């Protein structure tokens, strides 16, 4: 393009061509996506970049502080709180994924049979998933709150001594994981049931013609057919568990003595409890980095399919 | 068959097995509803698991002495508005994903995927500071904006899947008749996707209505709180008043159940397209 001063008429032709681009079908995909792109830039991209910057500062919620380089990250790597949160996030994710996969697959296999009123069970077993987190936690807390609570009454019937589920560190961790499994198995069950129903019947017919037992049919037909979707589901569930705030916060607020504090809770406590935006942002950024690794693996998997 | 049990007997054995499993799994919810009709003294001193001398005292207390109805109203406004905004925006984007191909579209669907996995705490910290300078803390808009974006991935994928089922020939005919591409979308495709958009809307409403974390960060004033945040206030103030807590939780869950029954036949579809498709 030659460089020359733009005459007045040129701007109108630029405008005219912009108008024409807007009128023609070519601009339509962009226009359709414009509102959501704008929102994603404002609510995800902008905070992500500012958050990244905050991670290198000593800010409070009231004013941004000065730039301190990697100080926050170095402090985190040396802090027992952070290492514990990292460890708990890992434990929480691993046990939840295993637990809700096993439970979900078991129930999906049961419901894939010809059972009377199957539709009813399918709906009734989804309830733990759709009930608001606060509602389920209120009810679980009531069952395990103190030595007079339901679980301890039942333990008492069998002559056991009461268990302090929410004030003993190990039991609190177990309780958070158990409730998370309870809240997330329906998603696994639903997705695996859909996958089971998608398996080609003729594979089973061929297997039973070859004399394969029920177990061998499951082992050599069902499981391999489910392997792809299972990996995707487990990765998704890992990501969601790492991101979970509601279950540990509402049940124990991260206690006792921070035993059930995962990375998200730690970031929340640093930012909104201790008013240390720098440290909070650094923790959330590390969380993002961990999740991004999982997301990349997941995207790769899905492209292979 | 080598099995001695007749297929019919086996079916009913599995049925009863599922009945037991369903009751055990839903026990926390069942007990919550039953407990809400017992006073806290009855709950603490009771000897059997089944309730006796049912009472509405907790509900009366909820109605007369707490902000419960304010919380419920806030929940409905926040969920209602964010449902409309996210369904509208997702319908536009879903149409683009369904009908067009290209780098923009590919890039956009990648971005959607990342949004779904995004640790929302990272966005909440800078947004909290931004919203405070804009005076949006305790305003329903702070939460509505967040919910709209958080719902985008699944709402867009669901919308796209619905639009995929509508034959392109219908739009082509409209184009021949002199309709613009966008006009064809509004006049032909949208009216046909009513049920799909309704399902997306109900999903969005459910998610917003159930959401706790975002609301907990932005809504700090009793008058602005949505139900999940409001109930945590009950938990702190009357930590041992289990009767009222159970009543509050029971009323909270009623709209969830009603909406859920409305979309239960879509739910596999929604979970699979929202969660698993990229």
What is this structure's SSE topology?
The complex is a heterodimer of chains A (305) and B (278).
Chain A: H1 8-23, H2 28-54, H3 71-78, H4 80-111, H5 118-124, H6 127-130, H7 133-144, H8 150-157, H9 169-197, H10 201-209, H11 214-242, H12 246-252, H13 263-273, H14 277-304
Helix pairs in contact in A: 2-14, 4-9, 4-11, 7-12, 9-11, 9-12, 11-14, 13-14
Chain B: H1 7-25, H2 27-35, H3 40-45, H4 57-65, H5 68-99, H6 103-117, H7 120-134, H8 140-164, H9 168-176, H10 181-192, H11 194-210, H12 213-218, H13 227-237, H14 242-263, H15 267-276
Helix pairs in contact in B: 4-14, 5-8, 5-11, 5-13, 6-8, 8-11, 8-15, 9-10, 11-14, 13-14
Write up this protein.
The complex is a heterodimer of chains A (305) and B (278). Chain A is flat and about 75 Å long. In chain A, helix 9 (169-197) packs antiparallel against helix 12 (246-252) and helix 11 (214-242) runs antiparallel to helix 14 (277-304). In chain A, 74% of the residues lie in helices and 0% in strands. Chain A has a domain at 73-130 and 176-304: MetI-like (MetI-like fold). By secondary structure, chain A is mainly alpha-helical. With 278 residues, chain B is mainly α. Chain B has 2 domains: 7-58, no CATH class; 66-276, MetI-like fold (Orthogonal Bundle), CATH 1.10.3720.10. The two termini of chain B are 44 Å apart. In chain B, 44% of the residues are buried. Chains A and B meet through helix 2, helix 4, helix 5, helix 6 and helix 7 of A and helix 1, helix 2, helix 5, helix 6 and helix 7 of B.
